[in-house]
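Reviewer 2 asked us to include a model.

Predict the structure of this chain.
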Amino acid sequence: MNTIEFRNGSLSIVNSYDRNFIHELFRDSEVRRFYVLRDDHASNIDAFVDYIIDSIHRQVGLDFIINSEYTEKVGLITAELVRNNNTGDLMWNVGYAVLPEFRNLGYASNALNALTNYLLNSFSVQLVSLDICAKNKLSEKVATKCGFKKPETGEKIGYFDLEHMDLGVRFKWYKSISSKRVTYFNQASQAYRMKDYNSSIKLYQSALSEEYPQGTPYTDAQIYANMAMAYSSIYDYETDYKLLMKAKRLGLTNASIEKELTWLRTNCGF
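Predicted model (structure tokens):
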């Protein structure tokens, strides 16, 4: 995945050729004020660029240039895996910035929606957060438009960043997919990775019994395909075959499914 399309533009993975653009972006006073950087990055934007480019290799972040429909570079949006201070669970923390001349044109909200949907639909980490200064009313509007909410309790009172006291009180805003199907699917996938195949099968069956959240990849067909591989791992090849064929009848096909079906036909006579 190198590009994510949205209504009036796209996101493209940051690379070394974007260095000059990021320097230009961070010369803007509003960006320098509200896009909070670590002190070493704030004093050396090259170090920040190196950090986000390297995050691809460290597999802890996803960092994109926001492009207009005319392929102009208009901003930056980043997502980094961090720990939720309240629960200790992993979540995505997202930050973004747009050049002054491209603000109020929908780029921030469209880019945030596109990246948030990608993160929630593509990874097992099911919580995305924004860190917004109370003075930044435009970002609050963007967050609200994109379905982010401040918690009803706990962090609602906000907090002060001791390294950036000039920003005043800041709040965490959150967005997640609230779906039991997603929860069961992710638990099943984790059990499969841990080679607990029987638990994985039961959890996939539980996922199937829950309502499908529109616009997500957690379809019946995908669950049948994943469950089939769990049955294959416990040598129940007949059920494996039946589930893969169900997935195909529902319109899902890919190289992995075809490879498994070919093996089953060759070695098991299905």
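The chain has eleven helices and seven strands. The mean pLDDT is 87. We have added this to the supplementary material.
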